[in-house]
Amino acid sequence: MRRIIVACSTAAALLLGAGATSAKDEQAQCLAEIAAKYPLQHQEWDFNSIFGTYDQAALKRGFQVYKDVCSACHSMNLLAYRHLSGIGLKEDEIKAVAASVQVTDGPNDEGEMFERPGLPSDKFHPPFPNEQAARASNNGALPPDLSLMAKAREGGPDHIFAIMTGYEEDPGCLKQWMNQGRNFNHAFAAGGFQIAMPPPLSDGAVTYADGTKATVPQMSHDVAYFLSWASEPNLDSRHRIGVATILFLIVLTASFYAVYRKVWSDVH
Asked: Among 54, 166, 167, 264, which residue has the fewest nearby CB atoms (within 10 Å)?
C-alpha cells in the first residue's frame, strides 16, 4: 500500500512538473513572439551626427512635457534649474520655473527647517521626499530618476520614445500571464513587457507655447529629446571642439607634408 501511495505521489509530481515546464515554455515563446513583432524603431535625432546640435524649440517642448507630466512621479536629481539656460530659457524664465516649487531649507536662527520658493541654484524639486514615499504612491514600484535615462538604457532616446508610445490595451498571447496592476507595453522587454507605469500621455495632455500639436508621438519625441540633452548637455560644445580639432589636424598634416617635401627636395 505504501509503495502504491509513493508511486502515485511521484507520478503526480512529475505531471505537475511537466505542466509547469510547459507553461514556462509557452510564456517564453509568447515573449519571443512579442519581441520579434516589435523591434526597436530608430527615430530621427538631429543631434546624433558629427555636426549635430540640439534644437532649442524641441528642448523647450520636451521640458514642458517633463514639467507638466513626468515630474509628477520622476525626479531629475542631477539637474539644477540654472542648467535650463542650456535649452534657451532666459534668466527671468528660469527664476519663474524655480519659484514655482517650494523647497525645504534651513535650519533658520531658531534651528528649524522652513519652506521657501525655489532658486535657480536649486536642484530640480523631487516629487517625493524619499524612496519609501515614492513606492507607497506607485503600488510598490520605484519611478526611476530621469537625469541619465537616455544613457542608462540601450537605444537611448529611441528606447524612451518606444516606451512612451508602446502601450496597448490588448496584450495578446501575454494576457494569461499579466500581473495585477501592470500594463502591457511592447517596448518594455526588460520587464517581460509588463510595466507598472500607466500610459502617461494622451493627445492634448500639454499645450505647447509654440502652437505645435501635442500628439502622443510628438510629446514622446520631445521628452526623449529633452532627456537626451539632460544626460549630455555639453554635446554641442563637444561637437564644435571635435570639428575644430579635425580641421586643425588636417592643416597640421598638410603643413608637415609640405615641410617634408621641402626638406627632402634636394635629396631627390
From this structure: 264
Task: Assess whether pLDDT exceeds 60 at residue 263.
Answer: yes
Which DSSP state fits 268? -
Q: Where are the domains of the chain?
A: 1-37, 41-79+136-231, 80-122
Cell numbers placing 113: 527647517
Q: How far apart are CA 137 and CA 115, in angstroms?
A: 23
In angstroms, the Cα distances linking 80 to 90, 98, 109 are 15, 9, 26
233-237: long-range contacts, CB 8 A cutoff, minimum separation 24:
233/83, 233/86, 235/47, 235/52, 235/53, 235/54, 236/47, 236/53, 236/54
Give me the pLDDT at residue 6, please: 40
Q: Is 212 helix (H, G, I), strand (E, B) or coil?
A: coil
For residue 162, give the nearest of 27, 32, 37, 28 by alpha carbon.
Answer: 37
Q: Look at residue 227 and tell me whether its pLDDT is greater than 90.
A: yes
Digit-coded pLDDT (tens) for 164-215: 999 999 888 999 999 988 999 999 999 999 999 999 999 999 999 999 999 9
Bridge partners, residue 116, by sequence: 103
Across the strands, what pairs with 195?
183
Q: Which of 26, 36, 39, 16 is nearest to 174 (CA)?
A: 26
Query: What are the cell numbers at 26?
Result: 509557452
Output the pTM of the full model.
0.83
